[in-house]
Structures are given as structure tokens and as C-alpha cells.
From TrEMBL:
Entry-linked Pfam families: ABC2_membrane
This protein's record includes keyword Acyltransferase: no
GO cellular component annotations of the record: plasma membrane
Keywords: Membrane, Transmembrane, Transmembrane helix, Transport
Membrane topology: Multi-pass membrane protein
Lineage: Eukaryota, Viridiplantae, Streptophyta, Embryophyta, Bryophyta
The keyword Membrane is annotated on this UniProt entry: yes
Domain ABC-2 type transporter transmembrane: 7-44
Protein name from the UniProt record: ABC-2 type transporter transmembrane domain-containing protein
InterPro entries cross-referenced by the UniProt entry: ABC2_TM
Transmembrane segments: 96-117
Chief location of this protein within or outside the cell: membrane
Length: 125
């Protein structure tokens, strides 16, 4: 049950802009969304200002065959970043913030585990 809720509010199964307002707090306290946002932003980002991609037209992928950006072949070979950033509410500029938040969650869970192991004894449960 917890995994289902965590996955549904991570912005992957239900996009961020479709999550009901009441449940939005789950999106912000969800470590999965920080991992997904940082990894997908890095994997799919396309910089159209790069020299090889300056001639790219978003709707005409044949305009720049030398551009190394990831493309979606079953959607007319368009650039994946422009689908992913709108669908998953990605922002390439937030990748370091997402990584930092993920690191913070890891530290919090590690400290909580150490405290739990110190004070919770098997024979006292």
C-alpha cells in the first residue's frame, strides 16, 4: 500500500499537475520523485543551443540529423525532452536540487535506522 501511494505521487504514474491539491504534500516528501526528476532530466535533456542542434525544429526532426538528443521513434522521431519535460514537469535546472534532496533523504533514513537499531531490542518487542 505504501509503495503504491509513493509511486502514484512521485510524478511518474500521475503527472505532477494532475495530482489533487490535497495530496500534493506527498509529492514533495517523496524521495522517489527526486530520484526520478534528477535522473530523467539528465538522461533526456536536449540543449537546442548546442552547435549541432541549433538548426533543429522541434516538429521536424529531419532538420537536424546530427543532433545527439534522444528521440522518440514511435512519435514521429521528435525530441524526447520536449515530451518528457511537459509530461513529468521536469526542469533541467533543478537536477542538483533534486540530487541534494535525495542525499538528504538518504541521510535521514540512515540516522533513523541507527537510532532504531540502538533503542529497539529484539527481545523487548
Amino acid at each position: 500500500m505504501c509503495d503504491s501511494c509513493r509511486n502514484m505521487t512521485s510524478g511518474f504514474m500521475i503527472p505532477k499537475n494532475k495530482i489533487p491539491t490535497f495530496w500534493m504534500w506527498l509529492y514533495w516528501v517523496n524521495p522517489t520523485q527526486y530520484a526520478l526528476n534528477s535522473l530523467t532530466a539528465i538522461a533526456f535533456h536536449c540543449d537546442l543551443e548546442a552547435p549541432l542542434c541549433q538548426s533543429c525544429d522541434i516538429l521536424n526532426p529531419a532538420s537536424c540529423p546530427e543532433c545527439p538528443c534522444v528521440r522518440v521513434s514511435d512519435q514521429g522521431n521528435i525530441l524526447a525532452w520536449f515530451i518528457m519535460k511537459d509530461l513529468m514537469s521536469l526542469n533541467y535546472g533543478d537536477r542538483y536540487q533534486s540530487m541534494g534532496m535525495l542525499f538528504l533523504f538518504i541521510c535521514i533514513f540512515m540516522v533513523a535506522s541507527v537510532i532504531a537499531l540502538k533503542y529497539m531490542k529484539y527481545n523487548q518487542r
